[in-house]
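In this supplementary section we document a worked example of the pipeline. Step one takes a protein sequence of length 537 as its only input; no multiple sequence alignment statistics are reported here. Step two produces a three-dimensional model, which step three serialises into structure tokens for compact storage. The input and output of this example are shown verbatim.
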Amino acid sequence: MVSLSESGTYILAYDLGTTGNKSCLYRISDKIELIDAYLVEYPLYTTDDGGAEQKADDWWNAVCSSTQEIIKRTSIKPSQIKGITFSSQMQGSVVVDKEGKALRNPMTYMDQRSTAQIAKYLYHGFPRIDNWNALIGLKSLYITGGLAATPKDPLWKYLWVKDNEPEVFKKVYKWLDVKDYLTLQCTGKYSMTYDSAHLTWVYNTRKGKLGWSKSLCKTFDVNMEHLPAVIKSTDIIGGLTQQAADRMGLIPGIPVFGGGGDTFLTAVGSGALDLYDTHIYVGTSGWVAANIDRRTVDIANFVASILGAIPGEYVYTAEQETSGICLQWVRDHLALDEIGMYLDAQHIMDKTKEYDSLYEFLNEIVEQTPPGAGGLIFTPWLHGNRSPREDANARGMFFNLSLTTGKRQMIRAVLEGVAFHKRWMLEAIEKKIPYQKSIRFVGGGAKSDVWCEIMADITGRNIEVPKNPQNAGTNGAAIVCAVGLGLIKSFKDAKQLIPVDKVYRPRAQYKAMYDKSFSVFRELYKQNKKLFRMMNG
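The serialised model returned by step three reads:
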């Protein structure tokens, strides 16, 4: 049960995503209360050969400046902050030197350059399973419960640097994920949480055998000296250093916790904390994930179980490369010129307000557009497909345009297309777990009432939305702090702190129409797979 003082405890939680860092101040008492949040954006740099990078200094500067702004806006005393932790984008690759400085721009989860490295290690020898070397694949499955099968996996990014930038690679001291780079800046200590370690696919995840796999490191030419200590999400890495405290406007010594990747802390923050509880996330990227108590993998559908924040459990996850970012595409290419949205957005310094206006727009415009978008179907693969069909060549399309199709139908089709893909992943996940009648829905997309109803209609499930669904990742980070500090006895006890705020139920009158469109949606990928490869391979 929860055991807290009446005054509550203040915690800083950070959500470091693809487009910006949101710093959140929480007060934890008999509930989790968001006091304030502030967003600082930064750019994503893409290259013609499939690269996707960000600047490590941009991340750290965003963390520091947003923290200063939170302290300024709330007038809270830095001494009142009792814990710090991060929820961040995952599957990045950050190589740092002995001083903790990034040796090159970190490669994000969207980076697709390392196809040659996959071919070098996996696409040779006999026997084969599809394109993969069967012996290596089975070995990885046995040790890790999965396989680094796509160019977006951190293992191949690490080896890409080794092959393409040998002078940089010579200087590597440690190989980190995004969050672990930030906790290093806070504490001066190198570490990696279980989830990030698992996603290197050189970490042994068998119960009782947790640890870096010497055998897999040898197979994939990973220098084990580059691998940091692995810790729990609730472990204290160290106290905030004086240098970091000065940059952030805080005091030194504040405990910094391991934290976790966005997928796994969002599972916690959504309230999906019991066995088989499932949540849908729509942010820049997206996923469907369920809590399970055993290692599980579905190679055909690119779904795998990853060690999460809850000890002894895994998060069975299907990922979507581009989800909510499709809304940014809508904003920039469908809405601005006709509907006049964001006329004042250029003058808004707090970008959180800009995103709020986007969802207000969606609720108003899409609600006025009949379900089904006039038979128009959108495929949300603007940067490739991941699960249930891994394909970096896949792209978005509008299918079934007619002379009567208008922009408002196109915009609604985008929201429906993202929901169709979530249903596709949900059905893949439920090949291995029991059917779930109710699903938690979080992320920025869950702020839109009409998108919540679309998600219910298309999936055929009750869609449960907690309060402040866009902050589920930092909610989870705050809970990690609370468990680590002993304010909450266990993650299971935290569920009572994340009640359902709204429930959306599927409307029977639209079931046949959406079932038909969903069948076409899946067939669109099957029919166009070869054409995607011809255009983008």
